[in-house]
Amino acid sequence: MTVEFWFKKNEVVVHPNKDMYFKPKAGLKKFKVIQEGDDKKKSYKRLHRWRYSPTAAYGNNEVHLHPYKTRRISVAEALALQSLPKNFIIPANTTLTNAFKAIGNGVPFLAAKGLAITILNFITSLVPDFKLKLNGKIDGAKSSRFYQPTAKATQLSVLEPEEQGAHNN
């Protein structure tokens, strides 16, 4: 998915973290001359709105610039690029350094979700009466080999064997 896709999907222009970005003390002139999509430079890399973001590892002497604004990307934009839901908010009292470090150290949300579903499917293929808990309710995962997330699912937890036995009625 492209940078602009995630920006629009997460409505970053109205996100509570939209104004959380590093303001340049110097280098603004450099920001202005770097073309959209130019990620060949050692430090300053301008994202391209119609390409994927090459990395979300902010720091390491890399400055990721907004595709078409003369500034670095915001916390809201970084969250969007990591495919986090638009209702995910970094607390306002978090320092910019810590916010970007947390985002950059995270696994993209959709990648982590895909991995979790793959593991869940594997476990359910091995354990005949495997049950899981969605939003506090116990459901059998064997109705389909593939886990079908529900719109209301906010929590997924695997039941311990003793919990499974308690609900075999």
Largest sheet, spatial ordering of strands: 4-3-5
Number of strands: 5
How many separate domains? Answer: 2
The outline comes out as: elongated
Biggest β-sheet strands, sense, barrel: 3 strands, antiparallel
How many helices?
6
Uncertain stretches:
140-169
Tell me the series of helices and strands, N- to C-terminal: HHEEHHHEEEH
Radius of gyration using CA atoms only: 21 Å
Strand content: 5-15%
**Shape-level CATH architecture of the largest domain:** Alpha-Beta Complex
Helix content: 25-40%
Distance from first to last alpha carbon: 46 Å
Average of the residue pLDDT scores:
76
CATH topology of the largest domain: DNA Methylase, Chain A, domain 2
Instruction: Decide which structural class fits the backbone.
Output: alpha+beta
CATH superfamily of the largest domain: DNA Methylase, subunit A, domain 2
State the name of the first-level CATH class of the largest domain.
Alpha Beta
